[in-house]
Fold this protein.
Amino acid sequence: MKKLLDIFFPLAVALAVLGLWEGIVAARQIPPYILPAPSAILAALIANWSSLSASMLVTIAVTLQGFAGALIAAIALAILFSQSRLAERALYPYAVILQVTPVVAIAPLILIWIGFEHIDRALALIAGMIAFFPILSNAVQGLKSTDFNLIDLTRLYGATRWQTLVTVRMPAALPALLTGMKVGGVIALIGEVTAEFAAGSGTASGLAWRIVESGNRLEIATLFAALALLALTGILFFAALSLLEWVVLRRWHESARVYS
Amino acid sequence: MLLIADHLAKRFPNGVEALADLSFALNDGDFVSLLGPSGCGKSTALRLIAGLLAPDGGAVTFLPATPQMGFVFQEPTLMPWADALTNARLPLDLQHVKRGDANARAQAALARVGLKGFEQALPRELSGGMKMRVSIARALCSFSGAARPKLLLLDEPFAALDEITRTALNDDLLRLWREDGLTILFVTHSVAESCYLSERVLVLTPRPGRLADDIALPQQGERAPGFRLSPLFLDCQRRVSDALGGAA
C-alpha cells in the first residue's frame, strides 16, 4: 500500500501540473511557438520518435563512455593518492583546476584538438572531465576514511599495502565512491549536453543538438519533447546508479537501511 | 621472560607527552593489567609493544624472539561489510592460509567464544558483546600452532559493554588464557576488572605515564563463583585503589 502511495502522489502532482498547463495554454491561447500544450508535445514526441529516440541513444552512449572513462581514471588516481601523499600533493591541485574551469570554456579547444571527425570522442571526453572530479574527491575521501584501527590490524598481521588496500580500504571506500558515482553520472550527462551545444551544427547528433535544431526551426513542441527525453535520460542514470548503490550497500551500510 | 619494556617514552607531534620512562617486564604465560587514569598512555604503551607506534625513547625487547601477537581494540573494529566468519578469518587471509583451512580455524575460534551458528551474521546483526567476541575470535586466529609464545594485547576491550556481558567476557577471557597458554597484557581503567582478571597490575601515573606500582595479586587459576565477593578480592581492590590514588 505504501509503495502504491509513493507512486500515486508524484503521479497525481504531475497530472495536476500537466492539466493546469494544458488549461492555461488553451484558455489564454498561447501560441505553440511560445509555449506548446502538453498534448502538442506528446504529439511531437510520437511524430518524431524515430529521430528523437536515435538521438537519445547517442546521448546515452556518449555519456556512458565519458562516465566509464572518468570512473576508471578517478579510481586509479584515488588509489595513487591514498598510497602516496607526494602524488596527492603534486596532482590534486590540477584535478581541482580541471573542476573549477568551466567546461563551456574548454569545450571548443577539445573539439579542435580531437577533431570534428571524431566528435563522439570529444563529447565523451568532455562528459568524462565533468564527471571525473566528484568521483575522484569522493573516492579519495572514502579511501582515507577507513577505520584506522582496522588498518593497524592489517599492519600487525603483516599485510602488504596492496592487501590492506584490497581487503580493507577499498570496501570501506565503497559508500563514498558510489555517492561520487551518482553525482558524476548525472553531471556527465550535463557535460555531454554542454559539449553538444559547444560543438554546434552539423556534427553532434544527440538530444542537445535536437534541442538546438528544433529551436532554430521554432518547433518548440519538438524542443520540449527532446527536453523531456533528456530529463528522462538523467532520471534513468540516477535511478540506475541508485540501484547499484542499493545492491552493493543494502546488506551492511546504514545509508541503505530503511526506516519506517 | 617474554618481553622487556625498557624506559619507553612517547611524545606525539601535537606536543602531548603520553609516556615518560615506562619500564616493566612480562613473562611467558602472565596475565598482566595496565591500569591508570584516562590519558595516562596505557593505549600508547600497548601500541608501542605491538609495533604500531615507534618509541621516542627506550625500546621493547622480545625474548627469545618476537611472539605471535593478537590485538583487541576498545571498539570491536570489524569490517562492517563482512560476516563474522570473514572478520575472524582476516589474519589468516592476510597470511594466505588456504580458504578451507582458514574457514575451519575461524569457525573453531568463533565456537570457542560462544558464536557457533553466527558465522554468517554481519556485524550490524550482532550485539555489542557479540561483536567483541568476534574481535577476540579474530585475535585467536592470529595465533598458529607454532611453538612461539602467544601475546594477546587488549586495549580496554570491555569498557563499552554492560556489566553482565562484561562479566561473562571476563570469564571467557580467563578460560582462553588458561586453555591456550596465552600471555595477556590487558589495558583497563577499572580497578575491579584488573583485580578479577590479572596476576599482576601495573599502575601508571597520570600523563605522562610512568610506572607507579607493580602489584602482584595472590589469585591464580580459575576464579570461584563467589570470588568477586570474597575478602581476598576486596583486599586486592583496596591495594590497587590505594596505589592508583598514590600515583595520582
